């Protein structure tokens, strides 16, 4: 269906994360406590691809993007694994501060959830552009501003916003400026952390379209994080589902929505309310687990309608059931099928998807 | 509609801005009228984006701010005439709020059960010996129990559990009306629909009417009986929830509906992107509106 060579070919991989473990390590009076927020995650993001990362709060998605952006401060510690970008010859978390600020914004940029966190509230938007982009663009100031204005116009923003203070602009407008800031240096890779969660429905849709257009125009790759599956359906090319610090399923977006395999993914998709659908929605029992004391075996087993004995003891590996579809579940993975049950049947057994 | 439970007539709230010379008034809520019947409990949804005045309207129904013009009557009594501690407590017993973010509604440094006990003692007038039983009963209505909540701090409960606790707290005094302002927007995806289904159960089993304020058309479609759609303080469209949302008439309602992201066109953009990255085809945006 999708002929683009990415994720599987090695030449066009923009980001290659292998067996990444990032823990919050805290030491009190000689005893050590770990919160395993990112536990053994491997994924690849191809060139010109929007990779969606879905998961609820405390699933480790924010820790994951902090780690791949090398925004690592104690107690967060990278315990193992590698993070390779195509524009770097080593793991990003091994760079020193100077090397990091050289690649940030030029190669790797960030769209935050609350745009107030990027725009300095006491300075005009123009100064934020000078702070962020000027050191990376290597242009005299006049040509620099000509380039900024041209970029704003491409994103259908009036150049007048440069002279406004952030509080004078609406939330949607600020978010558009954050997107303009993140794309103005034409970075190779953009990390978007819940960029539309704080916005209204009408504004959300137009901001999503803007992100999509900006990403296509500069042909960069993107990791797009949100807990909202409806947003993922409308923006992501491929989708990874995180649960309690682990990646539990990954496939092209259409495939995830058409035939989700992991019981958690099935629940997320089946419980989406739709206009025109009045059927009662089932809720999962229990709550997302604490990452300080995750359940044994598969971390989803206490809430899983399909839980078997093996789920309580060993954690399922993320295995490919199809060249572009990976899932970590004992009930669907071919290696440990207990009774020859494969994906579709397991799905029917949960009764979550008709 | 007789409006014998709640009746709003031309309710307006205006705020003044500017200095002495350049004084302007701004109507946050502008001439809103609707009525709820006591005999027929229902979920009444108020929909609009931020700035549409829906939260101001909720605060007026809760008698937290007074209307500038028009009248709000609860069980026939105008809210403006509620004076004195006794009358105020009596009103609070019957009309209870549920707020958007349960982590902000509860003090993070205080135990959650404290709020339950305080509501039971002060609002419901429950005696010291009965408090545990009353709180446990309220928690059981929302699928929790006192054993799970007792002694816990807000951060020890999940967002879904904490929002259920907030609903249980609101139920302790046996209210006839709940005003829920964006109650599910801060709750995790896997737990959100359980709160929405809980509202349905409260209406059907306890006969509680609920004013459900949201910007999420999909959940409003799912649970509400009637809706009104607000834009800039005015009601632009209202009526039976299914009729309005299946076939909106006002341009603003149509815009809101078209902005709802449907999971059904999942991956359409991925295919469009495939075309876009192929230099031989002209990029086309096939996103359906």
What does this structure look like?
- The complex is a heterodimer of chains A (about 350) and B (about 290).
- Chain A contains eleven helices and eleven strands.
- Chain A is α/β, with parallel strands linked by helices and about 350 residues long.
- Chain A has a domain of about 230 residues: Rossmann fold, CATH 3.40.50.
- In chain A, the strands form two sheets. Chain A has an eight-stranded mixed beta sheet with strand order 5-6-7-3-8-9-11-10, sandwiched between helices.
- In chain B, the strands form two sheets. Chain B has a six-stranded mixed beta sheet with strand order 6-7-8-3-9-10, with helices on both faces. Chain B has a four-stranded antiparallel beta sheet with strand order 2-1-4-5.
- In chain B, about 40% of the residues lie in helices and about 25% in strands.
- Chain B is of the alpha/beta class.
- Chain B starts with 5 loop residues before the first strand and ends in a 12-residue tail after the last helix.
- The C terminus of chain B is likely disordered.
- In chain B, helix 7 runs parallel beside helix 8.
- Classes of the chains: A alpha/beta (about 350), B alpha/beta (about 290).
- Chains A and B meet through helix 6, helix 7, helix 8 and helix 9 of A and helix 7, helix 8, helix 9, helix 11 and helix 12 of B.
